[in-house]
């Protein structure tokens, strides 16, 4: 499913603007999300910090989706999808500095290769 998620927006943005595509993506999420939540009998857990972090996740997620749609409307799928698939570099950096999660040698080498991939793809 993730593979189609990265490709379909290129088709979408041939016909509608990235912002319109984002609106209709949200509609799709609401339809499927509502069905799934109803099907599993979901009852939300309430905790102020958890809710706050979840809301921030949604804000950054929707902004990221908009940036992706803008990029995919202007660039090649092969480059944009690969570049956005390197987002863990940012997450790893946050985890290292904020959560104090260590990075071992193998992971460090992988991060260096990811940076090299960004350089190769962006030139």
**Number of helices, counting only DSSP H or I runs of 4 residues or more:** 6
Shape summary? flat
Number of domains: 2
- Poorly predicted spans: none
What does the model show?
By secondary structure, the protein is mainly alpha-helical. It folds into two domains: 1-76; 86-123, no CATH class. It is 80% helix and 0% strand. The chain has six helices and no strands. The chain has helices spanning 2-15, 18-39, 48-74, 77-84, 88-97, 105-122. Helix 2 crosses helix 3 (48-74). The model has no long low-confidence stretch (mean pLDDT 93).
Blueprint (SSEs and pairs):
Blueprint: H1 2-15, H2 18-39, H3 48-74, H4 77-84, H5 88-97, H6 105-122
Helix pairs in contact: 1-3, 2-3
